[in-house]
């Protein structure tokens, strides 16, 4: 074998070895991905279930919220997922996501409404508001968000669904009126959506 042939053979062997190593590494990565995917999905489901439970009174429902789902057209025209809460088989509330606009961008919330259109609970799940000012919408910071509980589109009246600075009943924050204003508007929009889709949401035919 000439020196040139020896070099060629060595190069081919090295290339083949690299290909085998790459194939083994790819297979290992795929295997690890498949092995952890189920755990990731289970963790996401637990987080979602906990988020939904936060807007319901303790012991309010006894069904698996994640398995009782319907969809309706959202405010943006896209399908909106709605989870239905049941007590001994009877629909006692629905839960869905809404969003508003604060000082620093979108504020995303989850809210629960009973069959009569009254708020059962609201929680902020994502925002970028200023710490110490706008973050008072978080339940861990203040109980301001609890102020929606028990209210409906008719209680208060339409013109009172606003912060006090705008003639409404909801407190604003010192130096941060835009944030609570965005949340109030989002919750009101959520109630309007419920009123529009109520027949579908609380019907077992849906």
TrEMBL record:
User: What protein is this chain from?
Assistant: Ion-translocating oxidoreductase complex subunit G
Protein topology in the membrane: Single-pass membrane protein
GO molecular function, a single term: electron transfer activity
Q: Which cofactor does it need?
A: FMN
**Which family does this protein fall into?**
Belongs to the RnfG family.
Q: Does the keyword Cell membrane apply?
A: yes
Entry's localization field: Cell inner membrane
Q: Is Translocase given among the entry's keywords? A: yes
GO terms in the biological process aspect are: electron transport chain
Q: What does this protein do?
A: Part of a membrane-bound complex that couples electron transfer with translocation of ions across the membrane.
């Amino acid at each position: 074998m000439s020196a040139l042939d020896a070099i060629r053979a060595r190069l081919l062997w090295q290339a083949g070895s690299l290909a085998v190593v790459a194939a083994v590494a790819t297979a290992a990565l795929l295997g690890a991905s498949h092995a952890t995917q189920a755990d990731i999905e289970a963790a996401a489901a637990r987080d979602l279930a906990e988020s939904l439970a936060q807007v319901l009174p303790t012991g309010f429902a006894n069904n698996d919220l994640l398995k009782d789902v319907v969809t309706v057209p959202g405010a943006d025209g896209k399908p909106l997922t709605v989870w239905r809460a049941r007590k001994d088989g009877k629909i006692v509330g629905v839960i869905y996501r809404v969003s508003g606009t604060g000082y620093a961008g979108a504020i995303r919330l989850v809210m629960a409404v009973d069959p009569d259109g009254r708020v059962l609970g609201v929680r902020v799940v994502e925002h970028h508001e200023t710490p110490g000012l706008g973050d008072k919408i978080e339940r861990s910071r203040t109980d301001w968000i609890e102020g929606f509980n028990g209210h409906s589109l008719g209680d208060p009246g339409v013109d009172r669904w606003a912060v006090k600075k705008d003639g409404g009943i909801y407190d604003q924050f010192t130096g941060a009126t835009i944030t609570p204003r965005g949340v109030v508007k989002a919750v009101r929009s959520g109630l309007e959506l419920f009123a529009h889709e109520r027949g579908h949401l609380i019907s077992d035919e849906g």
